[in-house]
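This week, look over our next protein:
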Amino acid sequence: MLLNGRNSNPRWRLQWLVLYHKGVTVSPRRTTGNTEPVHSPDTKLTIHETTINDNFDMIVNATCHGCQSFTKTDSAAPMMFAVGPGLDLSSDDLDARIRRHSAYGRFTINLLRATLPGGIPPSASTPNPNTTTPDVILSFTNNDDTTTTTNPTATFRLHQSGDAKAATAHGILYAIVALAVAPFDSLVAGALGSRWAWVHGVTATVYVAFVVGAMVPGVIVGREHVATQQFRTGHQILGLLTVVALTLMFFWGIALSWIKRSAKKRGQEPPESTRMLGDIHRWVCRVIWVLLLVNVGVGLKLSEQRMVLILAYVALAVGVIIVLVPIYFCLWRIQKKRKEKEEGLEMPTIYDHHGFN
């Protein structure tokens, strides 16, 4: 892949073998900023001849129509390239999905020496008439991320691409939310009830903060890839629904707590409707937790993670559910008996001053 490092809409040329080394597909693509290159239909390539060397590398000679043009007067034109990772891709689809590069390099090239009369680039095996060595021969090694060239026509440095930090942060934060923060918040709410509502308020605030913090890098990553730029994948739709529902339940809980506290200050019982509103709040939050567990797995699948990692997450999620469901059931039984006991103590007060003579 090669692009003009100075252009805001650079061109990329992607190529891969098809039909078991019987041909090659060349896909001219355009990209803006740090986004996945997209096939550019207005760029045409006329394939002339191909050769395969002893390493089974296929060399393609072609004429580009509508490609990026370069000025011959630039003695240090900025360029960059990206390589890998290895992918078994056998397709003639010009819009085939690609993976994030594993290494990239930036370099400058002397266009005065890199082109022959008429702007035609010289062959790697054809020396410039004015020199004894080919004009453009690039070679690099992985030692200390350094690169070398056979002449001063071009110089560059190879950089190993680090992890996709935004994607990694997005996945880790959401996994923490689904496996730890959300169930802990539910445990606090179930164990303390309305007597220590402020503690549940603190854990709920942390819960929402984690979700928002995980969503931000997810949005950034979504804008970088073709498949997710429109935010129409199942993972993104489900994620948006859970964020909206969680935000709604957060303010729902605040309003419910305020209604109960106001009634208590007036020496009154909370309205009967608060019980139904509380049940809705609890069950919707439980559904949100399940959706978070599912959506993390969907996200791992969308990002094409290794099956071992996906299965490990599924096993961990199932384990968390197996451990927490009995605990939730016990808390529910305790709360039910507590309410029955409180109602039993209140019943005699109804008839305190209405006995029969």
